[in-house]
Amino acid sequence: MDTLEQLMRRTIFRYYTRNHKSRQNLVDRMTEQTTRNIYELNQFVNLTHQDSRALNALYGRLVHSTLRALDSGRSLESFKENLSSFASSHSSLLRHFLMTIHDSGLIDPDQNQPIACIDYSPALQLRLLGVPVSDIQEPILDIGCGREGRLVHQLREWGYEAYGVDRNVMDHPYLLQSDWSAFRWQRETWGTVISHMAFSNHFNHHHLRKNGQPEVYARIFMDTLQALKKSGSFYYAPGLPFMEELLPTEKYRIARIQDDMQKEFYSTQIVKLD
């Protein structure tokens, strides 16, 4: 006769094996959490669609193995041993995955401390960007708003129509989950676009990187300017001098805002004139 523990294990097994949607949701959630952790290791890592599919397959394999162990009918101790073996195997496969992704050179799996993006306070972001909150044109879009979209929420508390976009955001009606290269810009839509230590940081990284993709970011840069309303502004930091010097002065006005505390650092405001 089956023990209560065996019955519970088999009940879980039957639920997940018969309910494909629930099983895939579990795999997807594990994949999303690991993706978030990878981005925290280095903000410049970008997982390709192929990378994401491979990672999802790894977690599919882990879940499948665990479910089979649940239905094995063996003792709890035996199940624990199997689970430990699965975890060890998965860890090895995950390490191999990190070594073979497109941006593998940006990650050291053995590093003790992750290179994490910092959630700057809304006040600090606005000060460094030089955004005049009392005279800002709506609607506002924060590119690379961060998971919580703190600046977006602050602006909305002040009564502004503000939105944020990032590849990893919390579920919220004003935060849009999208990679920059996939975001659909519409002409003459935004009064103000803001990006503090996000878009231009990545653009600079790819501009200097030997195997980077600066042309992708150059396209996004121009798409952003085209998406501004007349007299709309694009505020970003740090500056992008190699792009700014190419803009036609009859169409755009460029202002550089120097930070008094960091003389080598400046942010940029580009105003669309027509």
Number of domains: 2
Number of helices: 9
Strand content: 15-25%
The portion of residues assigned to helices is 40-55%
Q: What is the CATH C level class of the largest domain, in words?
A: Alpha Beta
Please state how the strands of the largest beta sheet are arranged side by side: 3-2-1-4-5-7-6
The CATH superfamily of the largest domain is identified as Vaccinia Virus protein VP39
- CATH hierarchy: architecture of the largest domain: 3-Layer(aba) Sandwich
Q: Tally the beta strands.
A: 7
Computed structural class? alpha/beta
Compute the separation of the termini in Å: 80 Å
- Biggest pleated sheet: 7 strands, mixed
Low confidence ranges: 112-118
Chain-averaged pLDDT:
81
CATH topology of the largest domain: Rossmann fold
Q: How do the helices and strands follow one another from N- to C-terminus?
A: HHHHHEHEEEHHEHEE
The dominant shape is: elongated
Computed Rg: 23 Å
